Structure formats: structure tokens, C-alpha cells
Amino acid sequence: MKRPLANDRPLIERVTHIEIPEGRIKLRIALLVVALIVAVGSFGYGLNALLTTEPGVMEITVSDGGEMTCGDDFSFVYDLGAGETSATEEKKALTKLYSESCIAAYRIFNAEAEYEDHKNLCYINAHVNEVIEVDPALYGALMLLEDAGVRYHYLAPVYGLYRSLFLSEEPEAAEYDPYRNEALKTFFAEAAAYAADPGAVSLEFLDGNMIVLHVSDAYLRFAEENDFDRFLDFFWLNNAFIIDYIADELTAKGYVNGSLISEDGFVRQLRDADEAVTAVPFLHRGEEGVFLLETLPLTGRISVVQLRDYPAESAELGYYFVREDGSCLPPYIDARSGLPKCALPELIAFSEDASCAKIAIEAAKIFIADTFDEAALHALSKDGIDAYYFGGGALRCTAE
Questions:
Q1: Under CATH, which number does the domain 56-108+236-309+344-397 receive?
Q2: Rounded to two decimals, what is the model's pTM?
Q3: CA–CA distance from 371 to each of 310, 344, 347, 367, 377 (Å)?
Q4: pLDDT tens digit sequence for 88-99
Q5: How many CA atoms are closer than 13 Å to the CA of 291, on its beta-carbon side?
Q6: Where are the domains of the chain?
């Protein structure tokens, strides 16, 4: 038991007070000033440490301004302070430019929402058979597809249902799976037939970034009967166009000491220097599953496109659908049948000169097919596009 204190009074510790004489006002002020200087100095040091960026490689993220952007789909790493500008100032300017580019790219290539400052894919779909002036970047993207002679971008009604499938879970997913829903499979075949017919849907290109999306009366009736209003959509190609747009915006302002990587397999390394290396894992799906076959060091300024008939990690599940039995539906849709189709498990194509979109379009001609045309893949080398692929039990490359 605690022993009580004498007289039942609590123990009070002695405190010594040092009085400053009333007449020493200047001393009081001086001590106050010193205390303030110490406090402000400590705060300033801490704040400076937070606001100062050390030179070196850092990930640049989109500043949160409340706008919808495509920033979540990309990683942007940059070597700050390598030029004449300080790392702190460079990061500030680069963050601003990158954020603005991600906002603009999201709006320009958007097929789901319209924006006043951009006539995008959504606007085109809402104004068929009209002359429309579109953003130069969108005009160039559509022209690139037309010049390549492909019709992937006309499969919009099919893509919309595949998006629903990729975001679904069992058992609801069966409704959107064409291999488990015979009526849906029939619709895909009919929609693909319209998409493949230039007489049903086509683009006319005029001067001054003006276009016309021509849609026939028969196709418009089919759309009304099947409750869809979208005729153009980039789907799996969308991030290829976006990464090229952002890369062009960055390099136009002189920012070349970095790399852009999309979560669905597109890479733009911006620097020419030999020491700039993009390490790309080559995964292979064999009889025993998916495993890492090799890590490919791709040097200098380069564009890379990775195509696979399976998701490499869980983050990619929004672009694929994996059934309960482990079988997978990828986003690479055959323009003739409207069904997923891949000629080989994976393909990594790259180029020092071509954009990601250009590489993806050319590689898709070989990848989205019934059988693998190895000669056609090697022929792409003449256009400056090479590729890694698995064949004959080994990793192969078309580049010398």
C-alpha cells in the first residue's frame, strides 16, 4: 500500500524560475527573435526537403486536379536533372505537361463520352453521315488504320460486349461469352459482316482534319434493332494510340530521358542513348503453364508491343476473361467472325522508327489469324519492325 504523505498534502516538485529584469527589454526581444529563427529554420529545412527533388530516375505521376485521365493505365519513369534544369524544376514542368497530355489523350480517343474541346470517337459515332472536324491526332490515328487496310476499328458493337465480359464474373459472364451463348455468337457474326463491308460502314477523309463516317441505312436499322449506337472503337488498340500521343507531346518539348509503359503491353522508350535499356520479359505459355523464358534488353529509343493470348498478371484481367476451367478469351478479335483468335501464344514486336500503333496494327495482321505465318513476320523487317516469338522449341527473333 502506498504510504501517505505528511499532513496529507501532495508532494510538489521545486521549480526554479529565472527572472529577466524588467529593464532588460532588448534581451527579451533578442531571445524571442532567436527562438523564432530556430523554429522557422527548422520548418523551412523540412519544407525544403519535401519540395526539393534529388537528381535521378523517378516515376512521374499525374497531378490530381479532379479531371478524368488515362494516367492510371501508364507508368512514366524519367531521369530527372540530367540536363541543364534542376531536378526540382524539371519535375514540376514535366508533371504539368504529362498531366495535361494524359487529360487530352483520354478525351481525344474516348468512345464513351463527349467533350466540348475535342471531337472524339464518341462524337463521331453520334454524328454519322456528317462532315466533322476532328483533333489532328485522332485524324492521324484513323488514317493510319485505313492506310494499313485493316478494319478492326469498325468492330465497335462487338467490342462493347467483350468489355462487359472482361468485367464480369461467373455465372453472369456466360451471358457475354459467345461460346456459351449461341444467340450472341450469331450477333457477333452478323455485326462482323457489317464491319467488314465498306459499303456498310467506311470513313471518308477530307482536308483540314475533316472526316465523314458513312453508315448505310441497312446497318443503321441493324443497330437500332440490336440497341447499339457505336460504329467506331479502338478497343485493344486504344492505349497504343494514347502512348504515342503522350510520347510525341513529351518529345516535342524536349523531354526524352524517360520511358512510358502501359499496363496492357505498350512501351515507348524516348531516349537515343545506348545506356537507356528497357528490360522486357518474354513470357511463354507452354503445356505446363506460363513461365519466364528470357528478359530482353532493348536499347535506345524504341517502341515495343507485347501481344499475348493470356494475362501475364492479375492487373491485366480487365483486358481478358479467364473462365473457371482456366481457358481464356483475349481481346484480339477476328474482323471476319467477331471472335477472339490468336495464331500463337505470344509475340513481342519492336521498332526504332515505327510508333506503337503502327507496330500493333502490322503485328495484328499476323497475330490475329488461324495459323502463324512466319514468313510474313520476317517480312516486317523490311519496314523496320522486328519481333521475338517462340518457335521450334526456342526463342527466335526476326532481327539480324
A1: 3.10.520.10
A2: 0.86
A3: 17, 8, 14, 9, 12
A4: 999 999 999 999
A5: 6
A6: 21-51, 56-108+236-309+344-397, 121-233
